[in-house]
Write a structure and sequence with these properties.
The structure holds 2 protein chains of 2 kinds. By secondary structure, chain A is an alpha/beta fold. Helix content of chain A is 26%, strand content 28%. In chain A, the strands form 3 sheets. A 9-stranded mixed sheet of chain A has the order 9-8-7-10-6-1-4-5-11. A 5-stranded parallel sheet of chain A has the order 14-13-15-16-17. Chain A starts with a strand and ends with a helix. The chains are: A alpha/beta, B alpha/beta. The complex binds flavin-adenine dinucleotide and adenosine monophosphate.
Chain lengths: 321, 253
C-alpha cells in the first residue's frame, strides 16, 4: 500500500463538477496527514486539457480511451478498478453523485476495499481515519472507522470547501493505459439528454415557496402558488412532487434537480433529506414549516415552525395581499 | 423475461429514532420497519415492464422484521413469486445484504434485477451496484427510465440539473431505480390480507457472506446547536413574526 490519497474527478459536457474541487481540497489535508501524494484520477477521451484545472493535486493519472469519452458505469468502473488495484492508494475519495454512486460501490467489490458512504466529514490522525456519514435521510450521523488502513469514501456534495481545491500549481500528468476489457463493454453509452427549458427558471427567483410531500395532493398546489404570487416569488419543490408529476422537472431543487440560492427559501412540508439540502443550503434565509419537530430541515433552516402548512400558508398569503 | 426485485426493510423515519445504550446503533425497541421507498419504485417499474414485455416478477427479501408483510404487499401489487432469504444474520451490512441477494439471484435465471437506488441505512454502499459486481453483471444506478429491446435494456440515468445519460445494457443486468414511470401503486389492506392467504413465500438459505470492512464507533443526532430558531404561537402570530423576519432580512415584499 502507498500513503497516497486518490480523488476521482467527475466531468460532464467538458466541465469539471464542483464536487471534484471539494474532493481536492479535502484530499490535500488528508495527504498532508498520511504523508503521501494527492493524485487526481481523470478518465476521458481527449480530456487531458482538464488536468490544467487540477492544480491542487500533486499528480494527475490520466486514462484516455474512446470508451471513456462519456461517463459509463462499466468502462469507467473497470478503468478505475485497474488504476486503484495497481497503485494501492490508502484513501480513495469519490463524490456521492450519480456517477460516483455507480463507481464507489463497484470499486469496493473489485478492489476488495471497504467503502464508507454518505460522508460529510473525513479526518485522518495518528489513530487512523474517522469518517462521519449522514444516514437515515439526515436524521442520524454515524462515525465509522475502516478495519484495515485503507478505505474508499463517497462524499456528499457540498460537504467541503471547494475553493481549497482550486488553483495551485501545474501537476505532473501521467498517462495510464485503460484495461483492454473496456473495449467490449456490456454497457454502451448512447447519448446525453439535456433538460428541456421553457418553464419558470427557479434559479433566477429571489423568493422560492418550496413544497414537499407535506402538500399531500396536487389539489393543494394552488394554495402554494397563491402564496408565491403574493410574495412575488415562484413555486419550487422536492423530488417526490416532481416524481408524482404534480410540477415539471424544472422546479426540482436538489441533487438531481437544480441548485438555488434565493434571498428567501420557504420550505413547506419538506423533511430536508441530504439530497434536498444539496440544492438549497446556500439560500440566504431559510424558513421551514414542518409538523415533525425532528425533521432534519430544522438542523439547517434559520427559522422553524412546527405547524401545519395548511394553517401557515393562508395566514401568510393574507398578510401580503 | 424474469425480473427480480430485491427489497430491503428499513426503519420507518416517521417514528422517532433513538440511539441505543451502546451509542453505535439505533434503539430497535420502538422502531418500525417498512419497505425502502425506492424499492417500491423498483417493484412498480418491474410490474410496468411486465405489462409491456410479459414474463414474471419475483420479489425477494432477507428474513427480517416485516419481511413477510413486505413480500405479501408485493404480491398484492402483482408480484408473481415471493422469496425470503434466511440465515443472513441480524442487521447485515450493505455488503452482506448484497452478497446474500447476489447468491440467491444467481440461481433464479433472472434477466433483469431492479432494486432501489439507495436506502436510508446503507452506510457501506448501495444494493444495486454491489449486487451487480458480486454477480458480475452490468449495473446502472440512478435510473428513471427502462425499456426492453430483445436482450438489451435501454436505460436513462439521471445526472444533476435534469440532464440524463442514455445507455444500452446487455441483459442480464441490475438497475438502481430512482423513480418508476408511474407513482408506485398502493395495495389496500384487504388485498394484502388476501395475498397472505393465497400467496406462498419460498425460503432460500443464504450461502456466502461479505464484510463491510468498517465499524461504527458512534451514532448521534445531528447537533441542533446551530439549528433553526423555532417560532411558536397561533398561525396568525407566526405569520406576523415571519413577515417581520423576512423584511428584516432584506426580502422585498
Ligand atoms: C440519487 C438521488 C437523488 C435525489 N435527488 C433529489 C433532489 O434533487 N431533490 C429532492 O428534493 N430530493 C431528492 N432525492 C430524494 C430525497 O432522498 C428525499 O426522498 C426527498 O427529498 C424527500 O422529499 P420531501 O421532504 O418532500 O418528503 P418527505 O421526506 O416525505 O417529507 C415530508 C415532510 O412533510 C412534513 N409534513 C407532512 N404534512 C405536513 C403538514 N400538513 N404541515 C407541515 N409539514 C408536513 C412531514 O413531517 C415530513 O417531514 C434524491 C434521492 C436520491 C436517491
Ligand atoms: N466496475 C466495473 N463495472 C463493470 N465491469 C467491471 C468493473 N470492474 C471491472 N470490470 C470488469 O471489466 C470487464 C468488462 O466488463 P463489462 O464491461 O461489464 O463487460 C469484466 O471482466 C468485468 O468484470
Amino acid at each position: 500500500m502507498s500513503a497516497d490519497v486518490f480523488i476521482v474527478t467527475e466531468h460532464l459536457g467538458g466541465s469539471l463538477d464542483d464536487v471534484t474541487f471539494e474532493l481536492l481540497g479535502k484530499g490535500r489535508d488528508l495527504a498532508t496527514s498520511t504523508g503521501g501524494q494527492l493524485v487526481a484520477v481523470l478518465m476521458g477521451s481527449g480530456a487531458e486539457g482538464l488536468a490544467a484545472e487540477l492544480g491542487a493535486a500533486d499528480r494527475v493519472l490520466y486514462v484516455d480511451h474512446p470508451a471513456l469519452a462519456d461517463f459509463n458505469p462499466a468502462t469507467h468502473g473497470a478503468a478505475l478498478a485497474a488504476v486503484v488495484g495497481e497503485r494501492s492508494p490508502q484513501i480513495v475519495l469519490v463524490g456521492n453523485t450519480s456517477m460516483g454512486m455507480d463507481l464507489a460501490a463497484a470499486l469496493s467489490v473489485d478492489a476488495d476495499l471497504p467503502l464508507i458512504a454518505y460522508a460529510t466529514g473525513v479526518e485522518h490522525g495518528a489513530d487512523g481515519l474517522t469518517v462521519t456519514s449522514q444516514l437515515y435521510a439526515g436524521k442520524m450521523h454515524v462515525e465509522s472507522r475502516p478495519t484495515g488502513g485503507r478505505c474508499i469514501i463517497s462524499v456528499m456534495a457540498g460537504s467541503f470547501d471547494g475553493s481549497a481545491g482550486r488553483g495551485g500549481g501545474s501537476p505532473e500528468v501521467e498517462s495510464y493505459a485503460a484495461p483492454a476489457s473496456i473495449e467490449s463493454s456490456r454497457v454502451r453509452f448512447v447519448r446525453l439528454m439535456e433538460p428541456e427549458a421553457g418553464d419558470v427558471d427557479i434559479t433566477q427567483s429571489d423568493i422560492l415557496v418550496s413544497i414537499g410531500r407535506g402538500i399531500q395532493s396536487e389539489d393543494n398546489i394552488p394554495m402554494a402558488q397563491e402564496l408565491a404570487d403574493a410574495l412575488g416569488g415562484a413555486v419550487s419543490a422536492s423530488r417526490p412532487i416532481i416524481d408524482n408529476k404534480w410540477l415539471p422537472k424544472t422546479r426540482q431543487v436538489g441533487k438531481s434537480g437544480v441548485k438555488v440560492k434565493p434571498r428567501l427559501y420557504l420550505a413547506l412540508g419538506i423533511s430536508g433529506a441530504p439530497e434536498h439540502w444539496e440544492g438549497m443550503k446556500d439560500s440566504q434565509l431559510i424558513i421551514a414549516v414542518n409538523t415533525d419537530p425532528n425533521a432534519p430541515i430544522f438542523d439547517f433552516a434559520h427559522y422553524g415552525v412546527t405547524e401545519d402548512i395548511f394553517e401557515v400558508m393562508p395566514a401568510l398569503t393574507a398578510r401580503v395581499t | 423475461m424474469h425480473i427480480v426485485v430485491p427489497i430491503k426493510l428499513v426503519p420507518d423515519l416517521a417514528e422517532e429514532l433513538e440511539v441505543d445504550a451502546s451509542g453505535t446503533a439505533l434503539d430497535t425497541e420502538w422502531l418500525r420497519y417498512r419497505t425502502n421507498e425506492f424499492d417500491d419504485h423498483a417493484l412498480e417499474e418491474a410490474l410496468q415492464l411486465r405489462e409491456v414485455s410479459g414474463g414474471t416478477v419475483t420479489a425477494i427479501a432477507l428474513d427480517a422484521e416485516e419481511a413477510d408483510k413486505s413480500l405479501y404487499t408485493a404480491a398484492a401489487k402483482g408480484a408473481d413469486r415471493l422469496i425470503k432469504i434466511t440465515g443472513a444474520g441480524e442487521k447485515p451490512s450493505s455488503h452482506a445484504t448484497a452478497r446474500a441477494f447476489a447468491d440467491a439471484i444467481a440461481g433464479l435465471d433472472a434477466d433483469l434485477v431492479l432494486t432501489g437506488v439507495q436506502a436510508v441505512d446503507d452506510r457501506d454502499g448501495q444494493n444495486a451496484v454491489l449486487i451487480g459486481r458480486y454477480m458480475d453483471i452490468p449495473h446502472v444506478s440512478v435510473v428513471t427510465g427502462v425499456s426492453i429491446q430483445g436482450d438489451t435494456a435501454l436505460v436513462h440515468k439521471e445526472y444533476a440539473g435534469g440532464a440524463m445519460g442514455e445507455f444500452e445494457v446487455t441483459l442480464p443486468a441490475v438497475l438502481g431505480i430512482q423513480a418508476a414511470r408511474e407513482t408506485p401503486r398502493y395495495a389496500p389492506v384487504g388485498k394484502v390480507r388476501r395475498a397472505m392467504r393465497s400467496a406462498t413465500i419460498e425460503e432460500l438459505a443464504s450461502s456466502g457472506t461479505a464484510e463491510a470492512g468498517s465499524s461504527v464507533t458512534r451514532m448521534f443526532r445531528p447537533e441542533k446547536g446551530q439549528g433553526a430558531k423555532m417560532l411558536t404561537g397561533s398561525a396568525d402570530a407566526i405569520a406576523d413574526q415571519l413577515i417581520t423576519i423576512m423584511r428584516d432580512n432584506g426580502v422585498n415584499l
